[in-house]
Design goal:
- With 339 residues, this protein is an alpha/beta fold.
- It has a domain at 3-32.
- It has helices spanning 47-59, 92-96, 115-128, 142-145, 153-159, 162-167, 220-229, 231-234, 249-258, 270-274, 280-293, 301-311, 318-325; strands spanning 3-9, 12-21, 24-32, 37-41, 62-68, 80-83, 101-104, 133-138, 172-177, 180-181, 192-193, 199-203, 212-215, 236-241, 245-247, 263-267.
- The strands form four sheets. It has a seven-stranded parallel β-sheet, sandwiched between helices.
- Helix 1 (47-59) packs across helix 7 (220-229) and helix 7 crosses helix 12.
- The longest helix has 14 residues, at 115-128.
- It starts with a strand and ends in a 14-residue tail after the last helix.
Length: 339
Amino acid sequence: MDTNKCVHTGHHLRLLTLCTDGGNWTVTKQVQRAKEKLIAVIGATGQQGASVVHALQSSSRFKVRALSRNPDKHRGLADEVGKADLNLPETLKAAFAGAHGVFLVTNFWEKGTDELKQATAAVRAAKEAGVKHFIWSTLPNVEEISAGKFEVPHFTGKAQIDRIVKEAGFANHTFVIAPFYYQNLVGALAPQKQADGSLGWALPLDPDVRCIHMGDITELGDIVAGAFTRPDQAGNGEYLPLVGDFMSFNEIVDTLNRQGHKFSFKQVPKEVFAALFPGAAEAAETFSYFQAHTYLGSDSYDRIAFANKIAGRQPTKFSAWARLNFQLQRNTASGKSLG
């Protein structure tokens, strides 16, 4: 006779299998450590942080503490919801207490943000709290890659924090690299009405140059969860980029137009674009960097392949994402899709 019993002891789930052999009972024990390790996620309500929370919870391997400046607005977001304000380091002690791992991302575009100061405070607090595995969302060092030719602070500023993470002495640390978000193309870089009446893009970029490493930012969490799960493989300073596709802007436009759109693209001079709106100068410099060195700044085939292995899945291609996320243009008179 075989009897299976599940016995809960604290947060350990023990499966006891009792079996008989000639009248003598033997006991086989399997111990499943369910949700034993706690991961604290900074920026849990942002695009990157939300992706990490979702992936960690889906894996069922970790207990998740979602951290926000306004935790009362986000109750139920994760196993725990706590307060963390990177501008108030005194909030970080409780935020990281008891955590095995921390995921950190900072927001360059938020007014008044000092990413170096914020990240330094977070690394220090995590180290003091006894955190074992620290994952930092970084970007390429444009200043170093271009030998000083291009200045893109929202990339280089993050890259300069890598050294602080490396030197902190965590048992494990990992760097993840977010791509050019597919979501940008329906958000900040959505197609606009052009002078010729078409809908499309006018950017300071050679549309024939394949230089944009792209991805669905909601899939970044798969890489982060994979790294927390496999620290022996991905917790020794590895750089793990999320890349679903590598495209030129003409390839982006052609992909969309094959799906029924009628988008256009026009290359405009860098100096003209730089004067169009606040922040346009840095955007123009960013596109110039892409064109000269690509988004990731180097041949990253091996890193991309390894990141996909750690994630346990292939990221979504742009064409598949666009089919679900780009609304077909509507003819206001007939209500029918154009094309």
